[in-house]
């Protein structure tokens, strides 16, 4: 059978879980039966929501009753090594063994120490043929947040900002200004729905008073992360309104009535390293950093970022707060309404 064809379909299915399965990876599964008339798909599934059934379970459940007897002759195409441990759901490797599928084709091995080859070993020990590495690069691209989380022990960091055509990110004195157009703003809300957390610095929280929620798109509100090293932000700001989970990182003791989870870091150690270590401990897989310029620049200078998304507007300010300089490898450039969107990768 054409392994790449069916793995492509499994990868397409996996993307349907974007924004709903973190900190788990996005996973898709396709069950294919091949006889003298040619191969045909008898089941499909994807991991739809964190804590819910995994892709393999949903694929098996989708098989019609009249086709269930075909499973022992079927090939399962799975975008990530089937899990072998009990978490929120039973092991998927055991399910495939129970259904006696004849072969499992996998895109990527799972770097999670709880799996890390054990799922493949379980399948092979049960006499199931196993093939790995089919469209592996596409699988890593799809789950680059998950692989960063597992391999680098930190969240995947996306830096986002909008700048004018003359290179300013804000008005004189940090005055908030509207830079990007309505289509770009809607796209940003889509991005917010796709990431588990969104971060702003002290000045942006105070000057812009953002809500950091999803209003222009359908999806889950991200956890808000606010930097307030000196503990000077007023509790009347939107980020402290209790409407969605909020983490506040500071060097000081928080107010007793704060409607956020406050994390006091050690002032004698590197702030960003402590911050990312705590977010990793909380299983936050990725963070969309929306500014301001001091926070964005701190990630860039520390080389602790993975992706930059930069809108360049045709508007001119003439004076104001200079935008950071983009760096890394340019991977795409397109127009979003009147704004030019450039995306860069660190590696």
From TrEMBL:
InterPro entries: APOBEC/CMP_deaminase_Zn-bd (IPR016192), CMP_dCMP_dom (IPR002125), Cytidine_deaminase-like (IPR016193), DHFR-like_dom_sf (IPR024072), Eubact_RibD (IPR004794), RibDG_C (IPR002734), Riboflavin_Biosynth_HTPR (IPR050765)
Cofactor note: Binds 1 zinc ion.
Chain residues that bind substrate: 192, 212, 215, 290
Binding sites annotated in the UniProt record for Zn(2+): 54, 83, 92
Domain CMP/dCMP-type deaminase: 1-131
Pfam families assigned to the protein according to its UniProt record, in alphabetical order: dCMP_cyt_deam_1, RibD_C
Catalytic residues identified in the record: 56 (proton donor)
GO process terms (BP): riboflavin biosynthetic process
Pathway participation: Cofactor biosynthesis; riboflavin biosynthesis; 5-amino-6-(D-ribitylamino)uracil from GTP: step 3/4; Cofactor biosynthesis; riboflavin biosynthesis; 5-amino-6-(D-ribitylamino)uracil from GTP: step 2/4
SUPFAM superfamilies: Cytidine deaminase-like, Dihydrofolate reductase-like
Annotated residues for binding of NADP(+): 162, 204, 208, 292-298
Alphabetical keyword list: Hydrolase, Metal-binding, Multifunctional enzyme, NADP, Oxidoreductase, Riboflavin biosynthesis, Zinc
MF terms in GO: 5-amino-6-(5-phosphoribosylamino)uracil reductase activity; diaminohydroxyphosphoribosylaminopyrimidine deaminase activity; zinc ion binding
EC number: 3.5.4.26, 1.1.1.193
Named cofactor requirement(s): Zn(2+)
Known function: Converts 2,5-diamino-6-(ribosylamino)-4(3h)-pyrimidinone 5'-phosphate into 5-amino-6-(ribosylamino)-2,4(1h,3h)-pyrimidinedione 5'-phosphate.
Annotated PANTHER family: 2,5-DIAMINO-6-RIBOSYLAMINO-4(3H)-PYRIMIDINONE 5'-PHOSPHATE REDUCTASE, DIHYDROFOLATE REDUCTASE FAMILY PROTEIN (AFU_ORTHOLOGUE AFUA_8G06820)
Protein's name in the database: Riboflavin biosynthesis protein RibD
Provenance organism: Rudanella paleaurantiibacter
Lineage of origin: Bacteria, Pseudomonadati, Bacteroidota, Cytophagia, Cytophagales
């Amino acid at each position: 059978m054409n392994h790449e064809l069916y793995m492509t379909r499994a990868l397409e299915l996996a993307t349907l879980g974007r924004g709903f399965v973190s900190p788990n990876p996005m996973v898709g599964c396709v069950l294919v039966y091949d006889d003298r008339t040619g191969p045909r798909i008898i089941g499909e599934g994807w991991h739809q929501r964190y804590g819910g059934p995994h892709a393999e379970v949903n694929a098996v459940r989708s098989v019609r009753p009249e086709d269930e007897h075909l499973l022992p002759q079927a090939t399962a195409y799975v975008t990530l090594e089937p899990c072998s441990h009990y978490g929120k759901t039973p092991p998927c490797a055991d399910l495939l063994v129970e259904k006696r599928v004849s072969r499992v084709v996998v895109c990527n091995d799972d770097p999670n120490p709880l799996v890390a080859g054990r799922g493949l070993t379980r399948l092979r020990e049960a006499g199931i043929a196993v093939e790995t590495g089919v469209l592996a690069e596409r699988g890593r691209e799809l789950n680059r947040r998950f692989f960063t989380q597992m391999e680098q022990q930190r969240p995947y960091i996306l830096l986002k900002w909008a700048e004018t055509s003359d290179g300013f990110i804000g008005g004189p004195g940090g005055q908030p200004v509207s830079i990007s157009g309505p289509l770009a703003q809607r796209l940003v809300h889509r991005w917010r729905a796709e990431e588990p957390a969104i971060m702003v610095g002290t000045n942006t929280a105070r000057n812009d008073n953002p809500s950091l929620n999803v209003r222009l798109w359908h999806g889950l509100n991200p956890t808000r992360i606010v930097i307030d090293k000196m503990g000077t932000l007023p509790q009347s700001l939107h980020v402290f309104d209790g409407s969605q989970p909020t983490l506040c990182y500071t060097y000081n003791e928080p107010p007793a009535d704060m409607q956020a989870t406050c994390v006091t870091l050690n002032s004698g150690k590197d702030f960003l390293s402590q911050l990312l270590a705590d977010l990793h401990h909380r299983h936050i897989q990725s963070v969309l950093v929306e500014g301001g310029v001091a926070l964005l620049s701190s990630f860039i200078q520390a080389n602790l970022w993975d992706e930059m998304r930069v809108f360049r507007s045709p508007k001119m300010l003439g004076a104001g707060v200079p935008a950071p300089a983009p760096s890394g490898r340019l991977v795409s450039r397109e127009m979003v309404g009147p704004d030019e969107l450039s995306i860069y990768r660190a590696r």
